[in-house]
């Protein structure tokens, strides 16, 4: 059976290499048509590779600054695009204008505080869990990370812990 499938794949298609029958969006980018089973197997292998515990290289302060600056640039670009679609004088446009004028170090915190306020700290993990996440003794797939992504007080506290427990930069 496998030989037959390979023979069919290697045989030239009667309608040309690109098919011509499918719209361009239906064609795979690499030109190879795969079955759902092959796609599922490839996705499963990719997922298994991502779940393997591999030693993570510590990022340098310069790399972290580059990542942060890139994220701030993307946020500012999104703010400009969104602001241009809103009518002048609207409350949302004024909010975006305020965000656009903030210094880079305050943009991220302000967005989090407005998007995910949790003043009562509902559902927040204990401080010990934040310490373990901040010192990276818990893995990144820990379920508490989902809460931290959607809770401004927890994310602020975690960022503070990560900064205070980060090893000194060798450079």
The sequence of SSEs as H and E is: HHHHHHHH
Q: What's the count of strands?
A: 0
**Portion in beta strands:** under 5%
Task: Give the structural class.
Answer: mainly alpha
What share of the residues lie within helices?
55-70%
The tally of helices reads 8
The N- to C-terminal Cα distance equals 59 Å
Q: Which regions contain 5 or more consecutive residues with pLDDT less than 50? A: 13-27
Identify the quaternary structure here. single chain
Mean pLDDT equals: 76
**In this structure, how is the largest beta sheet organized?**
none
> How does the overall form come out from the CA principal axes?
extended
Radius of gyration: 24 Å
Structural overview:
It is a single chain. With 171 residues, this protein is mostly helical. Among the domains are: 61-115; 118-165. 59% of the residues lie in helices and 0% in strands. The longest helix has 25 residues, at 61-85. Mean pLDDT is 76; it is low at 13-27.
